Amino acid sequence: MTNELNRGNRHGADALVGHYACAGESDTGALGAVPSLKERLRQAFTEASIDPDQLTPAQMAGLDQLHLGGRGASYRLLELGELSGVTRMLDVGCGTGGASRLLAQALGCKVVGVDIIPAFIDVARWLSQACGLSTQTDFLCADAAELPLASDSIEALWCQHALLNMPDRDAVLNEWRRVLIPGGLVLLHEVVAGTNPEPLSLPVPWARQPEHSHLESRQALEQRLQHAGFRQLRLIDVTEQALSWRRHHGRREQQAAAIEEVELPGAQLLFGDDFTTMGRNLQANLANDRVRVIQGVWRRAVPSSHE
């Protein structure tokens, strides 16, 4: 794990780990040991009178469906992919493993999740164990630009809101092509730059400083995927759905705060005290077309020898 992280630092991992510092491992300061992310989350479930070792998808939703649109958006991407007979998938930038578990349950396949944040991998393994999916999911702490997987070993690749954290996307896409079997699919749910050239309102969930946000336009991303050897099958813009979802959740967050409602553990424990500000800024960026959201499916080109 340490070697993987050291290699990842060449691809901007330091900045990424720094952004998610509040999700870091235990540390010792003047007041003693600070609990790890997993310890804090387990305590939060306990305080909500929920057994942290016996969890349902609904109880985990605030922790493992961190992308715009939540579980609904994941199911729509799954429908868009039209997957059939897949036995082994890769979830890139898996975070706490929500999509990996959703895919394993929906498709009955084995899913490998990869993320560069050690604390997220720790939580992902625990949550899979707690909901009975540990035998169908496996989680690796690694850089997406240097995947610890054999070539031609993955049938379909899933990625939600992760490329925006990856400065060397060409290296990442080359790895995707390497690990996918010929004809393998990429299912992508991504935030892209909008048509409004104004600077982003920050912080947002993926960045606190401009230099840590690696957005590009939809057209640039399409071209990059094509050059990397992927053929586009389907692509839809889901910005309006994402904005509607963000507005709805913003109202719910305000209502819960107003009545001091005890909620299930959620994203604030992962992103820190400024998560509410992040959500508000993300909504403004969507509304002002500084960012857009797409879902699409691409196929790895099949060499002529396979035709």
Walkthrough of the structure:
The chain is of the alpha/beta class and 307 residues long. The chain contains twelve helices and nine strands. The strands form two sheets. It has a seven-stranded mixed β-sheet, sandwiched between helices. Helix 10 packs antiparallel against helix 12. It is globular, with a radius of gyration of 19 Å.
Question: Any descriptors?
Answer:
Rossmann fold, 12 helices, 9 strands, single chain, 307 residues, disordered N terminus, 7-stranded mixed β-sheet, alpha/beta
List the helices and strands and how they pair.
Elements: H1 2-8, H2 13-19, E1 27-29, E2 32-34, H3 37-47, H4 57-64, H5 70-81, E3 88-92, H6 98-107, E4 110-115, H7 118-130, E5 137-141, E6 154-160, H8 169-179, E7 180-193, H9 218-227, E8 230-237, H10 239-258, H11 268-271, H12 275-287, E9 291-300
Parallel strand pairs: 3-4, 3-6, 4-5, 6-7
Antiparallel strand pairs: 1-2, 7-9, 8-9
Helix pairs in contact: 10-12
Protein name: Methyltransferase domain-containing protein
GO molecular function, one term: S-adenosylmethionine-dependent methyltransferase activity
GO biological process, one term: methylation
Give a short overview.
The chain has 307 residues and is α/β, with parallel strands linked by helices. It contains twelve helices and nine strands.
Largest sheet: 7 strands, mixed
CATH class: Alpha Beta
How many strand units? 9
The CATH topology is given as Rossmann fold
In what range is the share of β-strand residues?
Answer: 15-25%
Helix percent reads 40-55%
Shape: globular
Total helical segments: 12
Order of helices and strands: HHEEHHHEHEHEEHEHEHHHE
Radius of gyration: 19 Å
List unreliable stretches of 5+ residues. 1-11, 24-32
Q: What is the distance, rounded to the nearest whole angstrom, between the alpha carbons of the first and last residues?
A: 38 Å
